[in-house]
Amino acid sequence: MSGRWDRLRIATARLGGDSSAPGSRARRSNAGSVGSVAELRPLPSRTVTLGRIQPQAPTHRTIYCNDRDANIPVGYKGNSVSTTKYNVLTFLPKGLFEQFRRVANLYFLMISILSTTPISPVHPITNVVPLSLVLLVSLIKEAFEDWKRFQNDLTINATPVEVLQGQRWEITQWKKLQVGDIVRIKQDGFFPADLLFLASTNPDGVCYIETANLDGETNLKIRKALEKTWDYMTPEKASEFKGEIQCEQPNNSLYTFTGNLILDKQTLPLSPNQLLLRGCSLRNTESIVAAVIFTGHETKVMMNSMNVPSKRSTFERKLDKLILALFSTLFTMCVIGAIGSGIFISDKYYYLALDDKYWGKIEDQFNPKNRFVVSILTMFTLITLYSTIIPISLYVSIEMIKFIQCTQFINKDLHMYHTETQTPALARTSNLNEELGQVEYVFSDKTGTLTRNLMEFFKCSIGGQIYGTGITEIEKGSAQRSGLRIEEDKKPSTTEHEKGFNFDDSRIMRGAWRNEPNPDVFVEFFRCLAVCHTVLPEGEESPEKITYQAASPDESALVTAAKNFGFFFYRRTPTTVTVRESHVEKIGKVEDVQYEILNVLEFNSTRKRQSVICRYPNGRLVLYCKGADTVIFERLSPGNQEAKSITREHLEQFGAAGLRTLCLAYRELTGELYESWNEKFVQAKSALRDRDKKLDEVAELIEKDLILIGSTAIEDKLQEGVPACIETLSQAGIKIWVLTGDKMETAINIAYACNLINNGMKQFIISSETDAIREAEDRGDPVEIARVTKEFVKQDLKRCLEEAQTYIHGVSTTKLALVIDGKCLMYALDPTLRVDLLNLSLNCSSVVCCRVSPLQKAQVTSLVRKGAKKITLSIGDGANDVSMIQAAHVGIGISGLEGMQAVMASDFAIAQFRFLTDLLLVHGRWSYIRLCKVVTYFFYKNLTFTLTQFWFTFQTGFSGQRFYDDWFQSLFNVIFTALPVIAVGLFDKDVSANLSKKYPQLYKEGINNTFFRWRVIAIWAFFALYQSIIFYYFTASASRYGHNSSGKIFGIWDVSTMTFTCVVVTVNLRLLLASNSITRWHYIGVFGSILAWFVFIFIYCGVITPYDRQENIYFVIYVLMGTFFFYLTLLLVPVVALLGDFLYQVVQRWFFPYDYQIIQEIHKDDLEHRTRFELLEGNNNLTPEEARSLELSRLPREKSKHTGFAFDSPGYESFFASQQGVYAPQRAWDVARRASMKQRPQPRR
């Protein structure tokens, strides 16, 4: 027990308390550090709030490595993470809250409560049971979705990791890690927490990591441990490590880290170069040893994530407004009835027995002496009586339709199936289908989403001449838009096809460059490619089997190019590189040359260049340099003007083709010059303060008087179909923004390649790479840097906005584009500037944000979503895109090469960016149109049904007498009108999928919300009013003089049953008028519902029970069907009721057509399958795919009839194919796809 208290006292001393323990480590650490902050307690981490920068805690944390007891009193968070929405305690209250956020559910709850009171004219079970079932199903669905998140969390938290226990590595779970633990990570393993890199199996304490889950990049990054910790690789040695880490508090900045490591009374500065972030993975390194710094929800990647949002579609929010409008209508009807009841009630109607003198105590609801109470009670009675105006089955039907749309249509669409990875589309939620049809802004990641992250050496410029005959995708696209046809020269004899190399030019391949005018320039060019890099070779030392591991795919492509040109780099040691050079002295001669690498001046975003100083075997000293044209041109010797101007023209051509360019240069060095410079370099490299700044200054001293060799052009291969997809989405009225962690030059190149930006656009570029900001950064004052940067951003935003206004209000049709980097964006998102940023962005056709963090991606998305009130969609493929995906109305995850983090956080998952065309323009648009029709039809039929009850109230003294039987009212939405609505919600199509993509402008109807406006609802309401009057007064007035076969006049239940029959028949037939395409499912739904009504009423009227309410209509239908009057009414009333709708549709289609109706008329005579038969007649040499297509076209199809316009209707292609022995994969819409074989038009006589 005493030992436990001793440890506690020592730990307290380490936190700044008194301790009598001699030689305690708290004293040792304070003695070895200047200005130690170990005495200060860490502040608790704060939750990330979207739209605000994460507050930084002012103090630091002190971590005692390899000593859990010392860290216990601080109370650092554990490493377990949770991404679920609910837990056991919050599920029921939070789940019910989510359900009652729907206005309709609140309304149904109120009606259910009212129906249990004596004033209710209907039985409570008719309202309570449906509401309970709806809530139960919804809660089960929520629980199932959250259970999947919980299972994923369990899997991640239970991932094994090796942690140091004593002098051995023990396997434990991620969730059991604690701050200060020493862990060992093996190759391809993921980092379980934010770690301090201590030691590696690689020489020089280097390891390679992949940060795809953070910044989306699959290229490897280099991390280097402090030289002082290289020896702590074995468990015996690692157990001796007792360092103290003083570092910043947990924050969400992925690219910064400050701290000190106190080891053996020495203070060693820490930088992001020693930080390994959770979610990254170890590559090309056998194993590493590291110390845990931040755990669980305090890791940087988790602090960049957001809580799982509860997304409700914009359509559903608009539906809430419609429900409120219906409730207002209901309230108005009830007020009218209540006032009428108060006026009508009187004891003069002696036959109503309302006089208490003669009849005793009268119920309050019918007491003429208290008209106010009568009115109030009558109002509540009418509320329950008219409650059908808002049907609870509406939400059930919508949920069912959405679920089937997802599981049967989206998930099984072969147009969104990626064959290479065998990945189908996946709808992970069914709440947002219709939102896909109204998207106006798309926010996209770049790497892995727009591109394959596959760099290929494509062209080059050497000695003032361009080499490379290939044509890029952007050149093909530009030519296609201009109406030109480009034919590529195919020269298979010289073409080399290898990953990273897509170059073809017989003038310099296979040693032919020796025949060019100046072969010495080619030698320097190829040697620069083969030597100036930090690439690691792996595998056998042969050109066919070797693989290169590089910090960027560009470097790998350049080294691969050197290999194909005959300069094969195959071996690296810490001080040398070995290159097998071919054709240098004469064609065919091969020799191995070992270059001594003296210094490497690394690339960074400020320098924009990389240099290597090497010594040839003959003692020659050369500096090779490659970098951006702007920085290389500034450092050329005076005699390079001609080469500079020619190369600049070549670079412009490469840039216009969407290629990534680098310039190559070299400088001859003397021994004396190098030795004097190297002394300064060694001093700068060993500096503890401002090391990077001093290294840059020293590099400037030698990177000058360069001789230009030439330039390279690398193509970042886009995903298949990306430019065409973006072009189509742009025509659909969708604006696309690219949010990427890449540097600005790369992002702009990709924007050109994707057709987002072109030379005809006015480009606004807001970059922090300015002299004023650099000077402020050199001074090192954070406050000054923030002030200068914010002022610059403010002025630049104002300037760009003013210039944009001149273009917008002028006669020019020039499109605008905005490019902004992450540092400027951080200040532009400030509350004082975000309005200017939003106004400028919304006026631009394209926006590119580069060097942005995951949280900034979410902030930009939120800015447009909340500021512009537009429907947004975010698409990405890595964990760095999760916040952006969750911040948008709709999140799309790309199930690509970077794990499943984005997919797990998304609403929909697809394998390729190009599938957005089908997802939005086909499925999204269809879902929106179908659900609009479903909701407006529900509104119409229930308003019609309720208004007939309302008209009856006027003839019953406003007493609340029901016109229909309880079961009629309960089953009206559940059985008698349910199936047709489902059929329309699933199978109605205005135009086919091909026409939806051929005319993307049709999508604008969804963006403008054309089909769910108040005007559309008002038209449906007008016809509901009109038809309700027809139903009630035609049947009630006409039946006043009608009688049955026995001579008795019709009673209330005869009239109500006749009216209800007319209502069921009419509202079902009305749906056929509203449908664009009629399938067998429409017929089954409509006529099946009508048949269900007659089957029900025959059975219901033929059975008598002790319940009074049922015996009212006993034998009614048999009596009615024995009269001619019933059949005449059933024929005339629906015709008269639907006549107004028919005439309105005729006028609307002729004189005020929608866009889709125009497309229908244009293509009404199209014969989709004619081309297949013409192909057979014109050419019998069919490819296997064409032959298969022809066989499918010959399969039997279902003939269908259509209203208004004949379009695709359901068939069973895969079924017929299997019968004929032809393979046809099952389509997503086998019950709803084009299958009608249209007849060929007869030749005119």
Automatic annotation (TrEMBL):
<dbReference type="InterPro" id="IPR023214">
    <property type="entry name" value="HAD_sf"/>
</dbReference>
<dbReference type="InterPro" id="IPR023299">
    <property type="entry name" value="ATPase_P-typ_cyto_dom_N"/>
</dbReference>
<dbReference type="InterPro" id="IPR044492">
    <property type="entry name" value="P_typ_ATPase_HD_dom"/>
</dbReference>
<keyword id="KW-0813">Transport</keyword>
<feature type="binding site">
    <location>
        <position position="881"/>
    </location>
    <ligand>
        <name>Mg(2+)</name>
    </ligand>
</feature>
<dbReference type="GO" id="GO:0000139">
    <property type="term" value="C:Golgi membrane"/>
</dbReference>
<dbReference type="Pfam" id="PF16212">
    <property type="entry name" value="PhoLip_ATPase_C"/>
</dbReference>
<feature type="binding site">
    <location>
        <position position="741"/>
    </location>
    <ligand>
        <name>ATP</name>
    </ligand>
</feature>
<feature type="binding site">
    <location>
        <position position="880"/>
    </location>
    <ligand>
        <name>ATP</name>
    </ligand>
</feature>
<dbReference type="GO" id="GO:0045332">
    <property type="term" value="P:phospholipid translocation"/>
</dbReference>
<feature type="binding site">
    <location>
        <position position="447"/>
    </location>
    <ligand>
        <name>Mg(2+)</name>
    </ligand>
</feature>
<keyword id="KW-0479">Metal-binding</keyword>
<feature type="transmembrane region" description="Helical">
    <location>
        <begin position="934"/>
        <end position="952"/>
    </location>
</feature>
<feature type="transmembrane region" description="Helical">
    <location>
        <begin position="1083"/>
        <end position="1107"/>
    </location>
</feature>
<feature type="domain" description="P-type ATPase C-terminal">
    <location>
        <begin position="903"/>
        <end position="1153"/>
    </location>
</feature>
<dbReference type="Pfam" id="PF16209">
    <property type="entry name" value="PhoLip_ATPase_N"/>
</dbReference>
<feature type="transmembrane region" description="Helical">
    <location>
        <begin position="1113"/>
        <end position="1139"/>
    </location>
</feature>
<feature type="binding site">
    <location>
        <position position="742"/>
    </location>
    <ligand>
        <name>ATP</name>
    </ligand>
</feature>
<feature type="binding site">
    <location>
        <position position="881"/>
    </location>
    <ligand>
        <name>ATP</name>
    </ligand>
</feature>
<feature type="transmembrane region" description="Helical">
    <location>
        <begin position="967"/>
        <end position="987"/>
    </location>
</feature>
<keyword id="KW-0460">Magnesium</keyword>
<feature type="binding site">
    <location>
        <position position="660"/>
    </location>
    <ligand>
        <name>ATP</name>
    </ligand>
</feature>
<feature type="active site" description="4-aspartylphosphate intermediate">
    <location>
        <position position="445"/>
    </location>
</feature>
<protein>
    <recommendedName>
        <fullName>Phospholipid-transporting ATPase</fullName>
        <ecNumber>7.6.2.1</ecNumber>
    </recommendedName>
</protein>
<keyword id="KW-0472">Membrane</keyword>
<dbReference type="GO" id="GO:0005524">
    <property type="term" value="F:ATP binding"/>
</dbReference>
<feature type="binding site">
    <location>
        <position position="445"/>
    </location>
    <ligand>
        <name>ATP</name>
    </ligand>
</feature>
<dbReference type="GO" id="GO:0048194">
    <property type="term" value="P:Golgi vesicle budding"/>
</dbReference>
<keyword id="KW-0547">Nucleotide-binding</keyword>
<dbReference type="GO" id="GO:0005783">
    <property type="term" value="C:endoplasmic reticulum"/>
</dbReference>
<dbReference type="GO" id="GO:0140327">
    <property type="term" value="F:flippase activity"/>
</dbReference>
<feature type="binding site">
    <location>
        <position position="740"/>
    </location>
    <ligand>
        <name>ATP</name>
    </ligand>
</feature>
<feature type="transmembrane region" description="Helical">
    <location>
        <begin position="1014"/>
        <end position="1034"/>
    </location>
</feature>
<feature type="domain" description="P-type ATPase N-terminal">
    <location>
        <begin position="63"/>
        <end position="127"/>
    </location>
</feature>
<dbReference type="Pfam" id="PF13246">
    <property type="entry name" value="Cation_ATPase"/>
</dbReference>
<feature type="region of interest" description="Disordered">
    <location>
        <begin position="16"/>
        <end position="36"/>
    </location>
</feature>
<dbReference type="InterPro" id="IPR001757">
    <property type="entry name" value="P_typ_ATPase"/>
</dbReference>
<feature type="binding site">
    <location>
        <position position="555"/>
    </location>
    <ligand>
        <name>ATP</name>
    </ligand>
</feature>
<dbReference type="GO" id="GO:0005886">
    <property type="term" value="C:plasma membrane"/>
</dbReference>
<dbReference type="InterPro" id="IPR023298">
    <property type="entry name" value="ATPase_P-typ_TM_dom_sf"/>
</dbReference>
<dbReference type="GO" id="GO:0016887">
    <property type="term" value="F:ATP hydrolysis activity"/>
</dbReference>
<feature type="binding site">
    <location>
        <position position="851"/>
    </location>
    <ligand>
        <name>ATP</name>
    </ligand>
</feature>
